[in-house]
Amino acid sequence: MNNSVIDIQGITKTYVNGKLKVPVLHGIDLQVQKGDFVSIMGPSGSGKSTFMNILGCLDRPTSGSYRLNGNEVANLSDDELAYVRNKEIGFVFQSFNLLTKLTALENVALPMVYAGVDKKTRTARAEALLSSVGLGDRMDHLPAELSGGQRQRVAIARALANDPAIIMADEPTGNLDSKSTIDVMNIVRGLYDEGRTIILVTHEPDIATYASRNVVLRDGYIVEDKQNLNMTPVQEVTHV
Amino acid sequence: MYKESFLMAWASLVANKMRSILTMLGIIIGVAAVIALVSIGNGVKQDIQNSISSLGSNLLMVMPGAPRTPGVRPTAGSMKSLKVADYEAIAKLDGVKAVSPMTNGTYVVIYQNKNWTTSVSGVNANYLDVNNWTMKSGRFLSNKNIQNRERVAVIGKTVAKNLFGDEDPVGAEIRVKNIPFRVIGVLNSKGSGAMGNDQDDMVIIPYTTAMERVDGIDYLRMLYVVAKDENGIDRLQSDIENLLRVRHGIKDTNLDDFNIQNMNSIMETMEETTGTLTLFLGAVAAISLVVGGIGIMNIMLVSVTERTREIGIRKALGATYFVIVTQFLIEAVVISLMGGLIGIALGIGASKLISLASGMSTVISVPTIVLSFAFSMAIGLVFGIYPARKAAKLNPIDALHYE
């Protein structure tokens, strides 16, 4: 037995499009230890997003074994997977995926609604989380009233709602300008420093330098996996 | 958990006011149209039934009939074959409770400087009971009035209003064809008849006076015969037929110079007609319900399907299948319920308004309300939940990538 948070053996994923089978992942092995900061790089079409969705329990692999905290994910029911997504993994999307009709505060509180947290507690926690990402004065704004960087910070606050041990971010800075990118990566780095396990998908080498370990995917295979001893620290941002 | 689901559903409905209102509109219109239309159909049916049954179902009407001989055939009722002696003979038959003869003419009736053209009927003392009339004030014609051919009159409400206004007509003198009559009573209002005619627009005088002094005729326009009991009505009808044939010397029944109408058969005919009407309105209502249903279906399908992405986000954040389906179920229930209730209120309101504005009576039927409400509820629920259920079953990532 190993003590990996994430233990993946021979994961494959094949999309069936009519009669056409499109294999995307060809058998991936990966172990992630608690407190790791893993970046997954690769050109588009390398399968990194597909891999990420499987890691985040948003999708199921075609074959192979995925153990999360020692539990085989394939054996979990849909409701148990929902519990995992709710409590154990915080997911940050490239396109934010905020609910447009809810305010920033309500968006952040939503995972706590599903976790059964009472209204008073979850409002207080959502307020604290938004303040910690620098949006204390934007809590009652709708996503449409926020900039891209602010939306992504709301999304990060939402990912932290139920205090998950693992944060997964799929190209979190893909839609952001350079200043917002630094903002968001500083926050992510802060989460690493808190001891959370972080998995980050990106295609920008600059972003990958924030991680402690760089994995490169190509055509559905892991082609490189090395430690990064020269992690980018928290950057100074000059807010105008 | 249910409270949270309810609050979430409510928040979603409020956040999407336009969508919620449009969806409700389909239900509102469907339910309201059905209730209003069926209430009109039922109202017409009830009006006709009431005015027919107010005459009583043990009533026979004897009219002089057109002879069935070759050549010119005068209109039924225009013949002069029905005499007072016929009336007296019929009155003596077994099974007859009451008989009232009737003559009829249209004259100008004058009171002081006011005049009113109305129908003047000559009847006997039985007429009040035979036709289910009641007195508003004064008294009806007495047998003595009839025997003595007195110049006394009972007037209907419309005539009283037009000639006397707020004055009390009883005791006043009116002139019919320049002959003075003393008003001895006013009838209670009966409203419109089955054909929409104003039954209160008439003056009633003794038939003896009418024949001799006003109309100047020696025949009757009609006889009302009331049977002692409803079951004996067919036998009484044939008794009258036989009696009149003997009296008029008719051997061939095809040559009858009279015509007897039975209220039951009239009622049956009218019921067939009104039944067709109700069926027609019901069909129109059913179509609007189906069209409304398709509207509900469309909006529900489209609005829930376009929210597949939202469902994906909610699932990605840890919402279970049950939580999502509960939220959409509550949304659909709230929309259908509110739409249905508003539709019922609007339908009842519309039918009251129609009866106020047009004078038509409308009868709101509870089964119609229940049926239309249940139908729209069912459609709203099925098409609100079905697509949500489908989306909630998807992998979160498939729902998120749904276009």
Automatic annotation (TrEMBL), chain A:
<dbReference type="GO" id="GO:0022857">
    <property type="term" value="F:transmembrane transporter activity"/>
</dbReference>
<dbReference type="InterPro" id="IPR015854">
    <property type="entry name" value="ABC_transpr_LolD-like"/>
</dbReference>
<dbReference type="InterPro" id="IPR003439">
    <property type="entry name" value="ABC_transporter-like_ATP-bd"/>
</dbReference>
<dbReference type="GO" id="GO:0005524">
    <property type="term" value="F:ATP binding"/>
</dbReference>
<dbReference type="GO" id="GO:0016887">
    <property type="term" value="F:ATP hydrolysis activity"/>
</dbReference>
<dbReference type="InterPro" id="IPR027417">
    <property type="entry name" value="P-loop_NTPase"/>
</dbReference>
<dbReference type="GO" id="GO:0005886">
    <property type="term" value="C:plasma membrane"/>
</dbReference>
<feature type="domain" description="ABC transporter">
    <location>
        <begin position="6"/>
        <end position="240"/>
    </location>
</feature>
<protein>
    <submittedName>
        <fullName>Macrolide ABC transporter ATP-binding protein</fullName>
    </submittedName>
</protein>
<keyword id="KW-0547">Nucleotide-binding</keyword>
<keyword id="KW-0813">Transport</keyword>
<keyword id="KW-0067">ATP-binding</keyword>
<dbReference type="Pfam" id="PF00005">
    <property type="entry name" value="ABC_tran"/>
</dbReference>
<dbReference type="InterPro" id="IPR017871">
    <property type="entry name" value="ABC_transporter-like_CS"/>
</dbReference>
<dbReference type="InterPro" id="IPR017911">
    <property type="entry name" value="MacB-like_ATP-bd"/>
</dbReference>
<dbReference type="GO" id="GO:0098796">
    <property type="term" value="C:membrane protein complex"/>
</dbReference>
<dbReference type="InterPro" id="IPR003593">
    <property type="entry name" value="AAA+_ATPase"/>
</dbReference>
